[in-house]
Write a structure and sequence with these properties.
Distance between the termini: 18 Å
Order of helices and strands: EHEHHEEEHHHHEEHEEHH
Helix content: 25-40%
Radius of gyration: 21 Å
Strand content: 5-15%
Shape: globular
Largest sheet: 5 strands, parallel
Low-confidence stretches: 214-220, 313-318
Structural class: alpha/beta
Mean pLDDT: 82
Strand order of the largest sheet: 3-2-1-8-9
């Protein structure tokens, strides 16, 4: 990939309202139906890699994974972390998921703050018993408030109500079971403590920081991870994950996407595509583009233009819309990528 313009570079992205629409109808459109598809295809065709970092689980296979031609998945240019950092999925011939996706078992067994990425079934059963009264209260309130019914049916459990119903349970849950709660825009997730959207980034920085080099003298051709392993290298081993060549982007920097912004010292820039800058912490507003999936599409297209040298890395032209101005400002400060 060294001869391709985006070879060695990574985009780490959230899914809903970041690279595809999350409509209030409850339907789940695919990447192909959204504004980011053409830009994503140009990115991987130019050698770039993508890590989807989402709270969603198996629906991501059809909505995102299968939208990429098989050859890019085989090469290892497309990976996914599902359930807010609980799993890592990449292509493998033995993969039993849709499109030969395979869970990285070594990833799931890693220690993150003395905790693995998954919860024991015994703990899950206990948490379900504890949370049932909260669900019952929510249903009771719905029965007495038609506006609440409409809100919950259309948007799931919106962020505005999450703390009201689950705030007290959050601290109780952490103290008693060693788990944490993640408040997404339309849902509430109970997760293994210390496991979040920063986990796959940290793992890739540690494990895939080296590319295999079959021509290296004294090397068996395997990467650092597989050099002393019975399992040979796979596609993803060919793409080093180096901080200064990674950009992360998400629409919820005020909630579950915030952990993706923790790697500024490693050179990873977090870009916000939140619908409103009011939802962006002040220290992240410098790289706010807005516009949700439309903002991501414009940002990625502009980033590629700069990397290809077709426009100046410090645009001086006056843009037409606030989103274009935000994108131009964000691109101007991305010296590491451009």
């Amino acid at each position: 990939m060294s001869g391709l313009p985006f070879g060695g570079y990574w985009i780490v992205c959230d899914m809903d309202s970041t690279v595809l629409e999350r409509p209030t109808s409850g339907l789940f459109p695919t990447l192909k139906e959204g504004p980011c598809f053409d830009a994503m295809m140009e990115w991987v065709e130019g050698g770039g890699s993508v890590l989807l970092n989402t709270t969603a689980t198996f629906r991501s296979l059809a909505q995102f994974w299968e939208c990429f031609p098989l050859k890019y998945r085989k090469l290892g240019q497309v990976m996914m972390s599902l359930a807010s950092g609980a799993t890592l999925v990449y292509y493998h011939e033995s993969g039993k998921l849709l499109g030969h996706g395979k869970f990285d078992e070594a990833y799931m067994e890693q220690e993150g703050g003395q905790k693995k990425t998954w919860m024991e079934q015994e703990i899950i059963d206990k948490i379900i018993d504890e949370i049932l009264p909260i669900i019952q209260q929510l249903h009771w309130d719905m029965a007495n408030n038609h506006e609440l019914i409409e809100l919950l049916v259309v948007a799931g459990v919106p962020h505005a109500l999450s703390k009201q119903y689950f705030g007290a349970f959050e601290s109780f849950c952490g103290e008693k079971y060693g788990v944490s709660m993640s408040f997404s825009p339309n849902s509430v997730w109970i997760e293994q403590k210390f496991i979040n959207k920063a986990t796959p980034i940290r793992y890739l920085l540690d494990v895939f920081a080296y590319t295999r080099n079959p021509e290296e003298e004294g090397s068996d051709g395997d990467c650092e991870r597989h050099r002393n392993s019975d399992e040979g290298c796979i596609g993803v081993c060919s793409f080093p994950f180096i901080g200064k060549k990674v950009v992360a982007i998400g629409d919820s920097p005020h909630s579950n996407d915030l952990p993706m912004s923790e790697f500024s010292e490693e050179g990873i820039v977090f870009v916000s595509c939140a619908s409103s800058i009011d939802n962006v912490p002040k220290h992240l507003q410098k790289h706010h583009v807005g516009g949700c999936e439309n903002g991501t599409a414009l940002f990625l297209r502009s980033l590629m233009d700069v990397m290809l040298g077709s426009v100046a890395s410090h645009p001086t032209t006056v843009s037409n819309t606030p989103m274009e101005i935000h994108v131009a400002n964000a691109i101007s400060s991305l010296a590491t990528m451009a």
